[in-house]
Design goal:
- The protein is built from 15 helices and no strands.
- The chain is globular, with a radius of gyration of 20 Å.
- The longest helix has 30 residues.
- It has about 350 residues and is mostly helical.
């Protein structure tokens, strides 16, 4: 059960990081053209680079000591984020953990699912320093990894028996996606900036979350923070939104083995209900409002910080209730108010 929970987490963690890296690669490719990069695209690139460090917790990265030099020339740090298996939180290390966990539950996976696992292994082998001349060489691997990871998610959903272990796997996936999305938003959108810069940044984050086309279909007046929050934080019909992840967690938690003779919710049910209710009572315009004395969206920062803390607590509750007592969930989101 524990391994299936972590299989869901590692698969979602890898996919979220690959999606972020691919958008960054597009900006870097544009900046290498003869035409000078616009101020808006440069700002978006810098914010996304900082988001890489916050979502992976590979500090100091693009936010700690010496960050100015790494922001000015990010290729070396990004390549390390992709290929360094010794850095906990890197893409390569996450894929190694994914493969180890998947093979520990191989008897629960279909033949087609195992083929996808083998494909990921081959792609991981391509992410070796002695096989790469630089960051540009990983473009094809990132594209192929997205295809493989999405395929893995679909095969697990359709081919794995929907028994107890499958519910743990789905809870792991949804926790990880909610963590990634809240950390990404908090590290990019919480601080307000000039309108055109903010619009490009919102568009970039939507691309990372894979909700850009959905946004364009639903909102015709350009890229605005309140509309962005409607879609990626509060919209329960959007499979990429935070609310949708919590709604799915709530559904899967209901299948977990708890004492139903007691007329009360389990700790994990209470945590999920509290978070979902808090989001349902939220207003996107209030969350998008900027403080009078600074450029910080305090309401947004507070609710995102709260979600991160509660998701971390949900992990601990799940571990204490269902996994080994001495096992600690690895924290992958910064929790201090000043971390972003």
């Amino acid at each position: 059960i524990r391994d299936r929970f972590w299989l869901g987490r590692y698969a979602e963690r890898a996919e979220g990081l690959v999606r972020l890296l691919r958008v960054i690669q597009l900006y870097l490719a544009d900046s290498q053209l003869e035409s000078i990069s616009t101020q808006e695209s440069a700002f978006a690139l810098y914010q996304l680079l900082r988001a890489v460090t916050h979502t992976t917790t590979l500090y100091p990265g693009f936010v700690g000591e010496g960050y100015e030099e790494r922001l000015a020339s990010p290729e070396s740090e990004l390549l390390s984020v992709v290929i360094d298996r010794n850095r906990t939180g890197s893409l390569a290390q996450t894929l190694v953990a994914l493969l180890v966990t998947a093979r520990s539950v191989r008897d629960r996976l279909s033949i087609d699912t195992l083929r996808v696992i083998n494909d990921i292994d081959v792609l991981l082998d391509g992410l070796q320093e002695d096989k790469l001349n630089g960051l540009n060489d990983v473009d094809d691997e990132l594209d192929n990894l997205i295809t493989a990871l999405v395929g893995l998610s679909g095969l697990i959903s359709e081919n794995m028996t929907h028994e107890q272990g499958w519910h743990f796997l789905q809870i792991g996936r949804r926790i990880e996606r909610a963590m990634h999305t809240t950390t990404l938003i908090r590290s990019t959108i919480v601080t307000a900036t000039e309108t055109n810069q903010e619009a490009m940044l919102v568009e970039s984050v939507l691309s990372v979350i894979d909700s850009l086309m959905t946004y364009k279909r639903n909102f015709l007046l350009g890229f605005e923070v309140s509309s962005f929050l409607d879609l990626v934080l509060l919209n329960e019909s959007n499979p990429r939104s935070v609310s949708y992840q919590l709604m799915q967690i709530q559904e899967h938690v209901a299948y977990l083995p708890v004492d139903r003779t007691r007329q009360q919710l389990s700790p994990e049910e209470r945590l999920t209900l509290e978070l979902l209710t808090k989001l349902r009572l939220s207003n996107s315009n209030e969350l998008a409002s900027v403080g009078e004395l600074n450029a910080i969206r305090e309401n947004m920062d507070q609710i995102l910080t709260h979600i991160q803390k509660q998701l971390y607590e949900l992990n601990n509750v799940m571990t204490a209730a269902y996994f080994q007592k001495d096992e600690q969930i690895q924290q992958l989101v910064p929790l201090r108010p000043g971390d972003m």
